[in-house]
Amino acid sequence: MSFAKMARLPVARRHWRPLAAALIVLFVACGLLSCGKGKVPNLGTGNNAYVTIPNQGSVLMLHIDGATGAIAIQGSTPRLVGVSPYGLVLSPSKKLLYTANSLSNDISTFKINSDGTLSLIATTPDGGSTPHEAVIDPSGKYLLVTNSGGTFDVSVFSIDASSGALTAVAGSPFYANAGPDEILFAPSGNFVYVSNPGSGMVTAFTFDTSSGTLTRVPGSPFFSGAGASGLAIYSAGGSQYLYVANSSAVNRGSNTIGNISGFVINPTTGALNTIEGSPFFPDVGELPSALVLDPGGRFLFATTPGSSFSIWCFDLNPTNGQLTVANESPFSESAGGLFALIDTSGNYFYIGSAESHGVAAYPYDSITGQPKTVLDSPFSTGDEPGRMVIVH
């Protein structure tokens, strides 16, 4: 199955060369006629992105404008009843896209065509019980999916290097405690962390890179806080820190609902040790659920539903992992708790919102973390989005 035909961007690829030539002539003419001073606009083409729409049973193709950060819908896979794609992940080759389908309990494999459209090439049955989130290990050899239904486990599949086909590894699925939600690899690829919102815990595994099997880390699961959900890992100078958004944790002496736990990852065992001063939270705000680190590793952002004190920004100390609330944070901007990610090629910050049925977009100040709204943001996706990936 392929994308239904939809309107393309105003500037189609086949018109780019003549347009570029015309712009060059215009710039030269402006110089000769003193048309006015100012910087030549950035004419970068930007990046494609994909977002799941669970209620519609489809995946949208988006284009991110390289100059403004604005989002335009480019097309959609056919809508399917009883599928509900939620988690999605991009292969390291950027030629395949996988979706975890929570209603049909399977995994779809899409080929990314040269024009960015998607073609369904395979459906892997027995993807798990209510498959939810998906991640690929740093080597690109294995796909892992959390199953939030009654089995409460993680399915692990080997990925065929030539076709992208999935095969369950020996011993899969692996028990991951009640209601496994987000899943994240440590950059080393040796450890895997899964959040368990219902119990406020984090389940930790060692990962065998030769077989794909998961083994529980001694002491796991580790307590984080009520509603433990979003995960992020900072790694630098031999140290690795795990951060967890505890969306419903109560903070003593504060009206803030929710906080961010910080842990030092033991480099040998993968065990978690609480960072001094954890948990971290601002003076106001509530219900943080999605986390993202900026590419420079200076800031950790947490996003919440609504538009009041909704974007939390913390300065990250790389020597000990401690978080300090950034100046003027939290920021009262339209946000959301579905996902948070950053387009590393343009420093644009994207937030999935259930309230707006769309994606909020911001450039942010690399010194202060202050977001600034992109024109026409939030951008509607027609229905509540699930997860989003950007093809850099």
Summarize the structure.
By secondary structure, this protein is mainly beta. Helix content is 5%, strand content 42%.
Verbal overview:
With 392 residues, the chain is mainly β. It has 1 helix and 30 strands. It has one helix at 16-33; strands at residues 47-53, 58-64, 71-76, 85-90, 96-101, 106-112, 118-124, 131-136, 142-147, 153-159, 166-168, 174-175, 183-185, 191-196, 201-207, 214-216, 222-223, 228-236, 239-250, 257-265, 272-274, 290-293, 299-303, 311-316, 323-325, 339-343, 348-353, 358-363, 379-380, 388-391. Strands 8, 9, 10, 11 and 12 form a 5-stranded antiparallel sheet that branches. Strands 13, 14, 15, 16 and 17 form a 5-stranded antiparallel sheet that branches. A 4-stranded antiparallel sheet has the order 3-2-1-30, with no helix packed on it.
